Amino acid sequence: MAPSSTVTKSRDVLGTNALRPDGAQKVQGSFEFTSDMHAENMLWGATLRSPHPYARIVSIDTSAALALSGVKCVITASDVPGKLTYGLISSDQPVFAHEFVRYMGEPVAAVAADHPETCRRALALIKVAYEVLKPLTNPEDAISGSHDPIHPDGNVIRHQRIIRGDQAATGAVVVEGEYVIGMQDQAFLGLEAALAIPDPDGLGVHLHVATQWLHEDLSQISACLGLPAEKVRLTLGGVGGAFGAREDISLQVHCCLLALKTGRPIKMQYSREESFFGHVHRHPASIFMRHHADLNGKIIKIDARFVFDGGAYTSTSPAVLINGITHTQGPYKCDNATVDGYAVRTNNPPCGAMRGFGVVQACFAHESQMDKIAAAVGKSPVEIRLINAMATGDPLITGQIMESVAPVARCITETDAIPLPPSLDVNADELELPGGSGLTSSQSNIVRGIGWGVSMKNLMYSEGFDDFATARCTLKDGVASLKFATSEVGQGFVTLAPQIARSVLGVDDVLIEPIDTEIGSAGSTSASRQTWMSGGAVDGACRLVRERLFHHVGKIHNIDPLRLVIEGTDVVDQMGTFRISVADASDGIEISETFEHHHRKTDELDEHGQGNCHTAFAFVAHRAVVDVDPDLGLVKVVQIATAQDVGRVLNPLSAIGQLEGGIAQGLGLAVMEEIVMKDGKVRNPSFTDYLLPTALDAPDVVAVMIEEYEPQAPLGAKGIGEPPCISVTPAIVAAIRNATGKAIERIPVRPQDICL
Amino acid sequence: MTVIVAKELSTALAALREHADARLIQGGTDLMVEINFNHVKPTTMVSLRDVQSLRTIRQDSPGIMSIGSGVPYSVLEGEPVLSAIPALAQASRTVGSPQIRATGSLGGNLGTCSPAGDTLPVMFALDAMIHLSTLDSQRVVSIHDFMTGVKRNVRQHDEIITAIDFPIVQGWQGYSKVGVRNAMVISVASACLVADHKHADVRLALGSVGPTIIRCREAEAWLKSSQDLTAGQSISLDIAHEFGRRAADESSPIDDHRSTAQYRRHAISVLASRMLRKAYQ
Questions:
Q1: CA nearest neighbour of A366 among A291, A307, A427
Q2: At B251, which CATH number?
Q3: B positions 167-186 inside 8 Å of A (CB)
């Protein structure tokens, strides 16, 4: 039942196209996702959710549900034995709504029963009397104070300014805009699921769950259960994508509570519709930006105001806000800035982590601004970006010095060097035109446009947070076993970790032990951080083991261990002829070492938004070519050219997969993906109406990897997960503007925004 | 739940008589979604999947192609439909994903009768005739009388839609559908235009812009009175735009989470004028 250990055998060291150990299983449909798990004597759990964005709970009557045959228990806020709330940054979200519901879909109660259908009927029998209240849905009302607090912690989650340089500086050229970003969903395919198994003595629980961060879940869950941390164990179930949506608690506490209450294993899994209510989304945002530039287009000063709608609970809003405002300048030099940023609480769905984490919103605004500056001074999109391109050593608007490798100009010029696609063929397949299979257009209706986007993205956690990673390596009889708690959500750490072990230790056979909380934290699979952090931990543990192996070999064969190196699969004396295979050298012994990798220390921002708050940065450029049907407002993205700053490519196949996937996700935000809200209610919680790009929407991707070894990174490699989805969105929108001449300042771009 | 898997039409018809609660299922692409969302809880289902007589395409009389209600869209995308009724093949191609097209059918589109049903505008533009059978009777109803409202039609509980007769018309015909992505999307607005050279007229039907499919009788009549519609004519931009404008006037779209009424009306005017120009290129 627990995910079996994975053994990979091959000479796939770092730099090769090592294949995923679970790849064939996933393609063949035999991979066990968490939702496929089963336990003897298992019950099912289900959640009752609020139909209202904001209401007072007058009463809850569970008697009819409890009386239903097959129902084992019904729990509400009064059944939570420990802490009543949880949260990643601020513990302000109730396990079950207590007194008030603050968003549509907020959990109010949960049931355990013998069958999912029994659960469904039981939920319908729970009578909740609500006094419906007027929801706060406009973020500006949260700032102005015109609406009463909807939560004891108030309606402003965080406010932060950045004041940098000469506040009176002005430029000969001034451009501004008010940019609006809609609410995007992570839309992972593997829905939320968990299996909780109570200990036989009823004093603890083992949770199998699809999550991004086992240890953070563990501490939040155990607090709510009122159990010591050692009484709660987590094992990673098979995860089908995350993109930030599994960073917050969803069904974890509910599932454990039901298991402890019934004394039986509980399986919970969300439907697609419930998933839209069960996890946080990307923050919708309004961003005002005004750039002052000289007549050459060089940025002199930026004024900006950010408003992120955090929804009903804090989640990671404070960190998303900081990411957004500290990326106001994008990958460009800027000495003077005045930035005002708010993350606010409303009765909209809670928003939190999603790939790009606040930088997506900032980038749409700053890249739209760059094109406005270019137009104002008569320069091309490429020229204006090269004039302003940041380099290593430049100060940021926070005062932090850019210490990462920063090949911004190279990203731009190498993207620019990628050939443009051929012009639209008069005999082009109609499916390839905007409108696709709808056959709405012919070649004569189509206009082509080109647009640019360049971005900077922080890697790892910020503001003083020590998000370390732990790994253990055990070498025995020529086999390396790796133990870590790193969530594999599809990013490929289970491919990378064995590559590291093979490179460092010269082994072929690498075993990945179950991913669980039986070892120290790996931190979250987010912030493009696991290759750097958990990769650094695996690398460190393997190096410690290698040192001990060299000592062991040196002692037996009377060679100074400092002369020994790994060559292929052998331990070799660099200064002599001695050579022994790692398998033989480790025969009959066991060497085990654990390593924690910590990144450089970061600081909090002061009241003027100054401080070394970020760990490291990565850069990327995107050029989009789109075909637009201006009369119908339909778009087909033809090609995305990109050059990405990756440090070093550790697995080319895996790297291109991240780039193409991120580009598809950024394309979705540009032209179709949006959770449509009205008065705090979600209007499209399904894949029928929340549209994701299909194969016909996906562009050709032509990618160049910029490999400039990052000395701060343990493997020289930067995180590559987030950058692909950040600047591709503004690039596509710029291309639509270029094709149509329309001043589009909102994403996703809707057909009516183009043609009406 | 009881599921009756009929091999013969008569078995299915008898089951409908016997079970007042019976729901028909063919491809299941609508009904299974309704069941999964708990919107309907059928107690008896009659499956038509194995009734081979509903899966035939026949051309018994000249000028009419009779398509069984259970023929999947994946078949309708190709020959012989592609040459005989190209608009139907095009509309079939726009339905959902390959998996859905492999199982969905015209019977389902008619049974559900959603204004967004992709093939319904084709039936309206071609004046298709719907064959309905009970255990002891048969009737043929014009599509214009069949669909009576949003998800409403004249089929009685004990009737099964067996086939749809499509006239084979000489002249260009086409189907266009606007959605926010390039495939696998519910229509925001759709249109089917048929140029009938023999009768020197043009017919236009609209989907997703009213409670039923809308046949643009006034725009059609205006066009016939303003323009020679025999083969070989060409249509001026002015005529095409005016036709589009009039078609949009006949639509009655709404604002919803998929689009706005204003955009839908605009899209209809663009689609109608484009298709008219194409028809006489």
A1: A291
A2: 3.30.390.50
A3: 174-186
Domain count, chain B: 2
Inspect the interface and report whether the beta carbons of B182 and A435 lie closer than 8 Å. Answer: yes
B169-218, pLDDT tens digit by residue? 999 999 999 999 999 999 999 999 999 999 999 999 999 999 999 999 99
A195 contacts A267 by C-beta, under 8 angstroms: yes
Q: Sorting pLDDT into bands at 50, 70 and 90, what band is A262? A: very high
Q: What count of Cα atoms within 13 Å lies in the side-chain half-sphere of residue A82?
A: 21
| Confidence class for position A7, pLDDT limits 50, 70, 90 | low
Task: Find the CATH number of the domain harbouring B111.
Answer: 3.30.465.10
Which residue in B has a C-alpha nearest to residue A272's C-alpha? B37
B130 and B221 inside one domain: no
What domains appear along chain A, each with residue ranges and CATH number?
6-32+467-597 (3.30.365.10), 35-133+206-239+246-270 (3.90.1170.50), 285-462+604-755 (3.30.365.10)
Q: Which percentage of chain A shows pLDDT scores above 90?
A: 97
| Contact pairs from chain A to chain B, CB under 8 Å | 99
Q: Are residues B29 and B142 in the same domain?
A: yes
* Cα-based distances in Å from A438 to A293, A435, A638, B94, B110: 45, 5, 17, 6, 20
> Which has the closest alpha carbon to A155: A170, A165, A168, A140?
A140
Q: What is the DSSP string of B71-108?
A: -BHHHHTSTTHHHH-HHHHHHHHHSS-HHHHTT-BHHH
> How confident is the model over A577-606, as a mean pLDDT?
97
Asked if B115 and B153 sit in the same domain, the reply is: yes
Chain A within 8 Å of B38 (Cβ-Cβ)?
Answer: yes
Structure confidence by residue, pLDDT tens digits, A196-237: 999 999 999 999 999 999 999 999 999 999 999 999 999 999
Q: Which residue has the tokens 């996703």?
A: A748
Q: Which domain holds residue B149?
A: 2-167
**pTM above threshold 0.95:** yes
Strand, helix or coil for residue A279? coil
Tell me, yes or no, whether B107 and B160 share the same domain: yes
Q: Quote the ipTM score.
A: 0.95
Is residue A678 classed exposed, middle or buried when 0-12, 13-18 and 19+ CB atoms within 10 A define those classes?
exposed
A672 touches chain B (CB under 8 A): yes
Q: What residue has token string 């921002």?
A: A605
Looking from the CA of A229 toward its CB, the CA atoms found within 13 Å total 10
pLDDT of residue A425: 86
Predicted local distance difference test score (pLDDT) of residue A4: 46
Residue B43 touches partner A, C-beta closer than 8 Å: no
Choose among A439, A631, A672: nearest Cβ to B270: A631
Interchain pair A695, B183: CB under 8 A? yes
- Residue that is last in its domain, among B116, B136, B167: B167
The neighbour count for residue A393, using CB atoms within 10 Å, is 9
Query: Residue A756: its chain B contacts at CB < 8 A?
Result: 262-263, 266
**Chain A partners of B271 at a C-beta cutoff of 8 Å?**
440, 632
